[in-house]
Amino acid sequence: MASAQLDSPYGEWFGVVPDELSGSQWIRQPYLEDSVLSLSQSRKSFHEIRRLPDQNIWKTLFEWQGNSKPLADPRYSAYLETVPQRSNCPEIAAVVEDLTDLLPTAWQARIRNIYVGRNLFGEANAEAWRSGEVGVVEMNYGITKAAVIYAVLYCKYFAMLETLGTKIDWDDPDDEDDEILLMILE
After folding, report:
1. Are both 58 and 90 inside the same structural domain?
2. 91 and 134 share a domain?
3. pLDDT number for residue 168
4. What pLDDT does residue 145 have?
5. Are residues 47 and 107 in the same domain?
6. What pLDDT score was predicted for residue 69?
7. Residue 5 is inside which H or E element, if any?
8. Same domain, yes or no, for 16 and 88?
9. Neighbouring residues of 175: CB distance < 8 A, sequence distance ≥ 6
10. 75 & 61 share domain
């Protein structure tokens, strides 16, 4: 693979590597070229550093909350015992698999060795960290709570507008409610 040097405002050079499949070019950082990420090491490091048991994050959450109902319910036992290899969260593992399949083939092996873990502590954010053969993307549980709150508020807002729309007499030229609703929608 040929690479060319480009000037970077950050003082590092980046190699431009053609992607044989799509014909497009991808920019990569050369100091990461020779390092090999290990999924097992990434997983182990995440759980050790965050002091989380290596199990399904939802099982961990229910245990820490002292919420034994879902843990004892046979309908959830198979789900809670599932521990995907690329994440401690089954939903995130499925999304990561789908996203990996969309990437160029040359990148898929590297991405498959990055562990995407959900953490229960800290602020509502996500971050990535790397050290040697460890590559981790960490998502805090708070980011999920914030997304759920946003979705609920959006649904309530949409339901309010839908209700208002049914109470307006759209055929009455003297009624200004339709103009007000249209202004809200803009």
Report:
1. yes
2. yes
3. 66
4. 80
5. yes
6. 93
7. strand 5-6
8. no
9. 168, 169
10. yes
Together in a domain, 54 and 97: yes
Degrees to nearest 5, angle at CA 63 with 62 and 69: 55
Q: What is the pLDDT of residue 10?
A: 32
The label of the residue with tokens 């729309």 reads 165
- 40's tokens: 């097992």
For 29, the domain range is: 1-34
Q: Quickly list H helices, 82-174.
A: 90-102, 105-111, 141-167
Say how many domains are in the chain: 3
pLDDT per position as a tens digit, 146-159: 888 888 888 888 88
Q: Are residues 91 and 159 in the same domain?
A: no
Q: Report long-range pairs for 145-152 (Cβ below 8 Å, ≥24 apart).
A: none
Q: Are residues 163 and 135 in the same domain?
A: no
Measured CA to CA, the distance from residue 170 to residue 164 in angstroms comes to 11
Decide the pairing of beta strands 115-119 and 25-28. Answer: unpaired
Angle between helices 141-167 and 177-185 (to 10 degrees): 160
Query: CA-to-CA distance for 140 and 119, rounded, in angstroms?
Result: 5
